[in-house]
Design goal:
41% helix; globular; 2 domains; five-stranded parallel β-sheet; Arc Repressor Mutant, subunit A; 9 helices; Rossmann fold; 223 residues; alpha/beta; transcription cis-regulatory region binding
Length: 223
């Protein structure tokens, strides 16, 4: 059972982080302020911190900076907009989740992060052909050359490469990258096209991100 230290003063988020995550086998210690979260870090050992960006006393990103001064514990930030993600301090946050939050999707994200933490050598670097992903540093290189990806492109690439060979529907990507309230599925196709232009030597015949007609997209597997 994982032990989550979570911080929010919003009742709907507290319900998801507290009662609902218990059903997925997590134990959550829930606090309402950033100061209390930092104090609790000094008195107990936690597997992951899940922080609402909009806390009443301390900005969530400032909390992440302070945690990074004392710990490498993974940090998940709960945000309301894509602009919030763009303002994140580099390297301080392990993952982002857009509100409104689906408890099942949150469980999958928490589990994936904890799996990487438990097996850091395997989780940090992933090689797929000439593509090397560093999930912690949030960098991607192709044949040793650094790729310049937008935050959205990087999040889509991370989601697809979590399980190479698995087919991800557009609805899944919308829910986990843009948020469950986003209605424009064409934004997925546009992001995939942009990613292919950076990953593929021949975007018309992709080997990294393939379209599975009628279902969605599949990353690899690439040897």
């Amino acid at each position: 059972m994982s032990l989550i230290l979570a911080a929010t003063d919003r009742s709907e988020l507290a319900q998801t982080l507290g009662a609902e995550l218990v059903h997925f086998g997590h134990q959550t210690q829930l606090v309402r302020t950033g100061r209390r979260l930092l104090d609790d870090l000094d008195t107990d050992s936690f597997d992951i911190a899940v922080i609402d960006l909009l806390l009443p006393d301390i900005d969530g990103y400032e909390i992440a900076r302070q945690i990074r001064l004392r710990s490498s514990m993974p940090i998940m930030m709960l945000v309301d907009t894509h602009e919030d993600i763009d303002e994140a301090p580099h390297g301080a946050v392990s993952d982002f989740v857009l509100n409104p939050i689906d408890s099942h999707a949150l469980d999958l994200r928490v589990t994936a992060i904890l799996r990487e933490t438990a097996h850091p050598a395997a989780g940090k670097h992933q090689r797929h052909g000439d593509l090397l992903l560093d999930r912690r540093a949030m960098t991607a290189t192709m044949g040793g050359k650094l790729l310049v990806l937008s935050r959205t492109e990087w999040r889509v690439l991370l989601e697809l490469s979590t399980e190479p060979g698995r087919v991800y529907s557009r609805d899944h990507l919308i829910r986990n990258v843009w948020g469950s309230d986003h209605e424009k599925t064409r934004v997925v196709d546009a992001t995939i096209l942009s990613l292919r232009s950076k990953l593929e030597s021949n975007p018309a015949k992709p080997k990294y991100i393939k379209t599975i007609r009628g279902f969605g997209y599949r990353f690899g597997p690439v040897e």
